[in-house]
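wait is this the right file?? whatever heres the structure
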């Protein structure tokens, strides 16, 4: 029996060697999307500010508000042009108007909604799935030793309720939510390297640092992927509760004992029909259940 198993192992290894040698020449000429039906194409992110548009348009309904004096002109509503996220469409700019219909089975059907609102990631992959590009963040840097990843946020970016989105929203998530054992009992595996946790800190209002005790060169991909750390508020606050690496400080702190008292937040929770402030906070961080929650994604109700 042992001899037969050994012979089988030799045969498998020989076959594997032949397979690994044969296709190498062919893979070098493989084109992106070659195995797909049709042409692989998608939008491009323009990262050179010198190539940004010099003039900006807006939806007709907003233009009407500008004409009526109810809204400032689009040039005054936008931040510094260098902070913008500019996308070159595949073929042409879309048309305003129309009605988008989708079928939902109920509040628990959050994945249906995530297909629309899961655009609030710090970084993301481009349409090929091979290249990391900015999203909420304007840019990032990974240190030469792979231990520190620095993320540069877009200045003047705002939550859906108009409040500023800054590094403070990352610190709030890290200090008051992620490290609160009543909320997160076990840290995210993606925020550890060889079982050793990383730390999050702010260099200034628009610069966030993630630091690890050992090299973690994969962390950039973690921030861009559908992960507990990089998945964004919309997905990770719904899917796993309290993940996503940032949160609306100005809104959520009212539900935490640290900013008032245990008795006060418990009283609010009971009045709202919840058994504890933890359960109430979990509800308040879920965009599918709480229409008041400030978000950075589209589709705000």
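ok assuming it is, sequence goes like this
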């Amino acid at each position: 029996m042992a001899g037969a198993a050994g012979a089988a192992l030799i045969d498998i290894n020989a076959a594997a060697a032949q397979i690994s040698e044969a296709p190498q020449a062919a893979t070098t000429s493989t084109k992106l999307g070659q195995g797909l039906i049709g042409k692989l194409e998608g939008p491009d992110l323009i990262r050179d500010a010198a190539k940004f548009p010099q003039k900006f348009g807006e939806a007709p309904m907003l233009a009407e508000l500008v004409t009526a004096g109810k809204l400032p002109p689009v040039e005054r509503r936008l931040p510094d042009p260098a902070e913008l996220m500019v996308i070159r469409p595949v073929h042409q700019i879309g048309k305003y108007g129309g009605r988008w219909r989708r079928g939902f089975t109920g509040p628990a059907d959050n994945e249906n909604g995530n297909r629309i609102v899961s655009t609030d990631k710090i970084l993301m992959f481009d349409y090929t799935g091979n290249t990391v590009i900015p999203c909420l963040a304007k840019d990032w840097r990974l240190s030469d030793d792979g231990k520190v990843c620095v993320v540069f946020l877009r200045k003047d970016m705002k939550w859906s309720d108009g409040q500023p989105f800054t590094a403070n929203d990352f610190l709030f998530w890290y200090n008051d939510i992620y490290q609160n054992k009543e909320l997160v009992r076990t840290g995210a595996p993606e925020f550890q390297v060889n079982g050793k946790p990383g730390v999050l800190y702010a260099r200034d209002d628009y610069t966030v640092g993630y630091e690890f005790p050992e090299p973690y060169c994969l962390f950039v991909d973690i921030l861009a992927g559908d992960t507990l750390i990089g998945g964004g508020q919309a997905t990770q606050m719904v899917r796993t509760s309290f993940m996503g690496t940032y949160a609306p400080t100005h809104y959520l702190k009212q539900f935490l004992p640290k900013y008032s008292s245990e008795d006060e937040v418990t009283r609010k929770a009971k009045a709202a029909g919840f058994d504890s402030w933890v359960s109430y906070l979990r509800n308040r961080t879920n965009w599918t259940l709480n229409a008041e929650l400030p978000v950075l994604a589209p589709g705000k109700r």
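DSSP finds eleven helices and ten strands in the chain. so i think its the right one actually
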